[in-house]
Design a protein that fits this description.
By secondary structure, the protein is mainly alpha-helical. The protein has 5 helices and no strands. The longest helix is centred in the middle third of the chain and has 13 residues.
Amino acid sequence: MSTPSGPASSFQLVGHRYERGSIIVTTNKPFDQWGQIFGGDDVMAAAILDRLLHHCHIIVSYGPSYRMKDKLRYGRLEESQEAATM
């Protein structure tokens, strides 16, 4: 028996926890872009979102990124961007 990978394993995890326990998800992507997260599978993304959003509390946070603030403070932002382009 093979183990599911990618979107299928995410769906199984959410399905297993659905109405049994809590799940905390953090993302910087809006819901309409979740299909991209799951390899372009909009149907899988919709099924996962359906279960996640059924009994959820959404907390939206605006403002500067905590990690970016530290990188700017220590002058590492330019180094990170240069490494990403190589």
